[in-house]
Amino acid sequence: MSKTKMAIYVGRFCGVLALLALIGAWITQLTGRPLAGMSQQRVYQLDKTGQEKAREFAGQKVKVTGRVTGKTIRVTAIEAAT
Asked: Considering the entire predicted model, what is its pTM?
């Protein structure tokens, strides 16, 4: 798969995450209660290593482990969600 196609998949993945965060915030605002126990919805960028690891899981639910620095997650591991 070309780098361009991978960049498109990663871009779409991040776009979907942002859309889900917006929908969650909207539902929270309408109901006055957090969605699924979340008190705040935030959108984070994955660091370069995390983006490369995320490509392997395009279209899948994942568990991301790492350290949050500002609005970036410094990814140490990404694995398929169970």
From this structure: 0.48
